[in-house]
Amino acid sequence: QVQLVESGGGLVQAGGSLRLSCVVSESTLDNLAVGWFRSAPGKEREGVSCISYSSFHKYYADSVRSRFTISRDNAKNTVYLQMTDLKPEDTAVYYCAAPCDSYLNLNYDYRGQGTQVTVSS
């Protein structure tokens, strides 16, 4: 069974940066696109980003495009989400999930436990 473990969340001021990490514990990561989605109180869950296994394809929600960068290191079974120019509206629990797609659909087979990101104004 695939397990995903996120880390890297925290409290940051608006305009700051954070890097989230997601370690995938299963070797069947092969050919698996991995992504991130977020969930905040009073808001709908939102697919944030997705990266193909080869890293050739990367997809972003309009709300984070040009501010967030997704990457992966398959040798370390790890996917990263570099977040810059953070805004208070980015405050949410961020989840690593798989598999993802170019439409950032939320119907994943696997997801992690989430990591809290709080952006203060």
Q: Summary?
A:
By secondary structure, this protein is an all-beta fold. Helices cover 0% and strands 47% of the residues.
Structure description:
With 121 residues, this protein is mostly beta strands. The strands form two sheets. Strands 2, 4, 5, 6, 9, 10 and 11 form a seven-stranded mixed beta sheet that branches. It has strands at residues 4-7, 10-13, 18-24, 34-39, 46-51, 58-60, 68-73, 78-83, 92-98, 110-111, 115-120. The model has no long low-confidence stretch (mean pLDDT 94).
Poorly predicted runs are none
Given the helix and strand composition, which structural class is it? Answer: mainly beta
Gap from first CA to last CA = 40 Å
**Cα shape:** globular
Mean pLDDT: 94
Query: How do the helices and strands follow one another from N- to C-terminus?
Result: EEEEEEEEEEE
Helix content: under 10%
Content of β-strand: over 45%
Biggest sheet features: 7 strands, mixed
Query: Tally of extended strands?
Result: 11
Over the alpha carbons, how many angstroms does the gyration radius reach?
A: 13 Å
Number of helical runs?
0
Write the SSE topology.
Layout: E1 4-7, E2 10-13, E3 18-24, E4 34-39, E5 46-51, E6 58-60, E7 68-73, E8 78-83, E9 92-98, E10 110-111, E11 115-120
Parallel strand pairs: 2-11
Antiparallel strand pairs: 1-3, 3-8, 4-5, 4-9, 5-6, 7-8, 9-10, 9-11
